[in-house]
């Protein structure tokens, strides 16, 4: 019988394997901060905007997931986008900013530098 810590570590490894398999072919990966403090700052609304855009077919070959605490409470909600070997980190991402990131950055290839962290 395994210890509680061993069970947690196994669940963590299983989750990492599932996510790795799902995301390996995605050209773009979007991670929305979903720690408790980020949720309180409104990250669920931003996550919903990205999710709806993917489900509506506005974004293709995109992997969407959540991330934990980034330790940047003053910049929450945060979003990280991994694309073509680059990482873009956005701060204070409201639902409106998420819509703008989709239009300008993800659809038209114009990252919004003013919102970078």
TrEMBL record:
MF GO annotations: hydrogen dehydrogenase (NADP+) activity
Source species, domain of life: Bacteria
Organism: Limihaloglobus sulfuriphilus
Name listed for the protein in its UniProt record: NADP-reducing hydrogenase subunit HndB
Assigned EC number: 1.12.1.3
Segments for region (Disordered): 1-22
UniProt keyword annotations, A-Z: Oxidoreductase
Sequence ranges of Polar residues compositional bias: 1-18
């Amino acid at each position: 019988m395994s210890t509680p810590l061993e069970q947690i570590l196994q669940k963590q490894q299983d989750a990492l394997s599932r996510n790795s398999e799902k995301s390996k072919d995605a050209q773009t990966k979007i991670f929305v901060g979903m720690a408790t403090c980020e949720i309180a700052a409104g990250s669920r609304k931003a996550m919903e905007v990205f999710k709806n855009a993917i489900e509506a077919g506005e974004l293709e070959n995109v992997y969407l997931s959540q991330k934990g605490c980034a330790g940047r409470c003053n910049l929450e909600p945060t979003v990280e986008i991994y694309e073509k070997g680059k990482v873009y980190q956005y701060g204070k991402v409201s639902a409106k900013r998420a819509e703008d990131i989709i239009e300008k950055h993800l659809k038209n290839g114009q990252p919004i530098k003013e919102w970078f962290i």
